[in-house]
Task: structure prediction
Amino acid sequence: TQLLEQSPQFLSIQEGENLTVYCNSSSVFSSLQWYRQEPGEGPVLLVTVVTGGEVKKLKRLTFQFGDARKDSSLHITAAQPGDTGLYLCAGISFNAGNNRKLIWGLGTSLAVNP
Amino acid sequence: NAGVMQNPRHLVRRRGQEARLRCSPMKGHSHVYWYRQLPEEGLKFMVYLQKENIIDESGMPKERFSAEFPKEGPSILRIQQVVRGDSAAYFCASSPVGTGRRAYEQYFGPGTRLTVT
Result:
């Protein structure tokens, strides 16, 4: 069974601090996505990383895909209260029938306090 | 371009009643996914559909739950004879046709919050 483990599960920090959250697996994924979900809303896609070692930046957010395409990290610089939410990673693999399958982590719940 | 639409946003049902949740994908998207989420938890995959076809229903409970995505109209998640344990947020996502990486990106609706009393 493919699993994506996200850590930490919960994180509470002060505005202005930096943080990194992780998404790890023993399986290789063809690509990996990061989503953010705010309370009461559906998840919103932030980024897709495809190539091993790839780094993508989205303003204060930096996403990295591991060289072996088994893990990923999200680094937030100078966190703001608006960054509060549940951060979910999802890896794409293909099952035996060559159908794509999205494997979801359980998320990191981030609270940024003013 | 309108996003994924779900209705109703909130649904209250008594035990034993039926719940019908609707999802209209983004324009041009022919792949629909349904997820269930409990408070403070991640997403649990339920079913993946294309127009008129169920591709993967490995996350669907064997009884009382069904899903369809007809040629015309929205996708429907149907829960028969609801029980209190069915109370949750149900999210629908859609993705575009294609073989590129963007074909796998999912766009979520705002969810339907089902409460069973």
Observations:
- The CA atoms of residues 61 and 67 of chain B lie 11 Å apart.
- Chain B has a mean pLDDT of 91.
- Chain B has no helices and eleven strands.
- The radius of gyration of chain B is 14 Å.
